[in-house]
Amino acid sequence: MEITLKGDREFDQIPSLRTKCLRINLNENIYGTFAEIGAGQETVRQFFRAGGASGTIAKAMSAYDKAFSDAIYGIEDDKRYVTEARLRKMLDHEINLVEERLSREEHPNKMFFTYANTVATIDFAKKYKGHGWVGIKYQVDANQGYNEIVLHLRFKETDARLQQETLGVLGTNLIYGAFYKYNEPKKLLRYLYDHLDKDQVEIDTINFAGPVFEDVDNRLMSLQLVKNGMTDAVMFAPDGNNVLPAKVLYKKNILALRGSFRPVTKVNMDMYKKSYDMFIKENKVDVDKTQVIFEITLSNLRAEGEIDEQDFMDRAKLLCSLGQTVLISNFQEYYKLVEYFSQYTKARMGLAMGVNNLVDIFDEKYYRHLSGGILEAFGKLFFKDLRVYLYPMQNDDDTITTSENLKVHPRMKELYKFFKYNGKVVDITDYDDSILAIFSRTVLKMIADGNDEWERMLPEGVAKLIKEKSLFGCETEQVHLGD
To answer: In this structure, what DSSP letter does residue 16 have?
Structure first.
């Protein structure tokens, strides 16, 4: 874990919730509304208690009844209420009301805002812990457009009252950060956990938008969530925006490829395409309900002990340019990745990987923290409807390693045979043997050396993007005339 969730301040130096609310309440130019659905009015309560709220709060409401909520905000296509679409409708509707009801001529310096949330706390049977969408739409200059911060949270506490209190603290931190830390978005993220602990709530999606966040890349903000221990995994779509994993993975067949993708090579794409072709031919796999995920773990992002954010962004841009959905995770072990997917789907899963990755799976050192050791891990990995698609490896002597001649530790030999001959590990046979000698590390060295041979090792269009964007240390002057 990179930081303590209390932030980079000692706990006793963190402003109290009352101090945060009072600073906002006493700012004569901050003025807006609160709309909270599903978990009471826990955030606005903090501002009322602090005092001086009459100059800040135009309206506080809770359209808790579904009929009233639909009458105000309309009916969602999916008939659901705890969704991002619902939250955004709330933000737009409420800020429009503020604009309509207050004259800009009479209030030229007012910075309008709307804070909203739509949340479901833990159910009575305690089967679902609860989750919600929280956001703020606001100005930091009366003459400037609106900014937005929208996040998704998952409750970890098992008591509805505690969850409501947690929501009130998080909402207060968000509003305070929006106005006073917008120029330091990384700190704003960390300060969301002021007076909270990671065991209380998880933030797994956040997106920034608006004039003050023009230079913020939401993929980099995604990385911060995992880096800071706020969540174990985040996901972003090809358009570069963070997306809720549950929305992408729910009831889907999932094919996942783990790699460094530094940069993505022809081998990576061949592994993807060939494993995908095999996966969609499996029983119970509906191509229209299949999601491919390119996964990068934090361990793959570290360089000399620290995460190189520029390096991360280079990889992200390339994968997005290829139209891929990317998962950034804190799961070093594959069984944890499978457990994570299992939260959202019971459908068939596939893991496409190279020989070295499979050998690592059978290394006992990764499972010493488990009381059941490697057997417990494999029970979690393979008891699901899962299959490994193994991409071959070309050795230095030009021989090919497949599942048939792969060597694992002698103690693991029988365990490997068990899974192999029960159809859990299958070879990708229709591979392109002309590209087996391509490795990302070779490409990086060629880029550093100014050797243009690296371009032929990458998928179509990727080399051009690397040169245009000067990714992975590729200098502009290396670009040929005529490229």
So the answer is: P
- DSSP secondary structure letter of residue 426: E
**Angle, alpha carbons 150-152-155 (nearest 5°):** 145
pTM: predicted TM-score of the whole model, two decimal places: 0.88
How far is Cα 402 from Cα 419, in angstroms, rounded to an integer? Answer: 15
Q: Of 300, 211, 297, 317, nearest to 256 (Cα)?
A: 297
Residues of the chain with CATH 3.90.950.20: 11-216
First and final C-alpha spacing in the chain: 43
The torsion region of residue 175 among left (phi > 0), alpha (psi -120 to 50) and beta comes to alpha
Q: φ, ψ for residue 417 (rounded to 5)?
A: -60, -40
In terms of C-beta density within 10 A (0-12 exposed, 13-18 middle, 19 or more buried), how is residue 29 classed? middle
CATH topology of domain 247-427: Rossmann fold (3.40.50)
**Residue 121 DSSP one-character state:** -
Which residues of the chain does CATH 3.40.50.620 include?
247-427
pLDDT digits (tens, 9 = 90+) for 221-250: 989 999 999 999 999 898 878 899 999 999
Superfamily of domain 11-216: CinA-like (3.90.950.20)
> pLDDT tens digits for 143-194?
999 999 999 999 999 999 999 999 999 999 999 999 999 999 999 999 999 9
